Amino acid sequence: MLRVSYASAAAPGRANEDYVLAGPSWVVVLDGATPAPGVEPGCRHGVPWLVRTLAGALAAGIEDGGPLPEVLAAAITATMKAHGGSCDLGNPHSPSATAALARRRGDRLEYLVLCDSAVALWRRDGSVTVVRDDRLDHLPGGRPYSLELVTSLRNRPGGFWVAGACPEAAGQALAGAVPVTELRGAALFTDGATRLADWYGRAWESLVAGAAEPEKLLAETREQERARGVPHGKLHDDATAAWVSFPPG
Predict the structure, then answer these.
(1) Which pairing describes strands 108-114 and 118-123: parallel, antiparallel, or unpaired?
(2) Which end of the chain has fewer beta carbons closer than 10 Å to its terminal beta carbon, N or C?
(3) Residue that wins the pLDDT comparison between 36 and 240
(4) CA–CA distances in Å: residue 136 to residues 104, 111, 140, 151, 157
(5) Strands 26-32 and 128-132
(6) Mean pLDDT rounded to a whole number for the chain
(7) How confident is the model at residue 249 (pLDDT cuts 50, 70, 90)?
(8) CA neighbours within 13 Å on the CB side: how many for 176?
(9) How remote is the C-alpha of 176 from its chain's centroid?
């Protein structure tokens, strides 16, 4: 059993392309990739549909107990089928998402991270282990990346991997497990929420502790964005934080 609390905030003036879904023993956090302006994605459904459908497919399989990469691969396949043949899933701009998953099985907490969302494990000794797939931060040439570069390296060896129309991407996720007895709790973040640590100097230990009050954490993120600006990208991004604890019994 898990106890999960979360908050998710859209970038002001936009639909929220993050998505959170939880069950008795698991939680899923997804971050949909906003299409670049003027780009034709080849899909009539859109990013909010993609994250909602993918989350539902994950929920359908995650309690069966299979390895999380296999659960994610099956969910991507199911989501592809849900397009109904009406979309061009070979289009490199088709909707996609990052993924952060946590599931308790017995005395262990299993986790999976694909692309730039994060799972942070808060250990009983006070330390924090951050599980993060940072391949998107290390594409050739450094930021700012061109659209052509990102397109050419999405779901490609030597590039980065996302959940969308490539089930093989799930096999590239970072996955593992840790005994629950070693943990105070765990937090799952989209990159809109990790800005506090990535850009504004907040220690990860403080960020994870703050995830127990996720609404306050997201409000602080917005305050920092307005006051200090951003080094690259959008001034505001969708932001989601989920806190996981382990009630006795």
Answers:
(1) unpaired
(2) C
(3) 240
(4) 28, 20, 10, 12, 12
(5) unpaired
(6) 95
(7) low
(8) 12
(9) 16
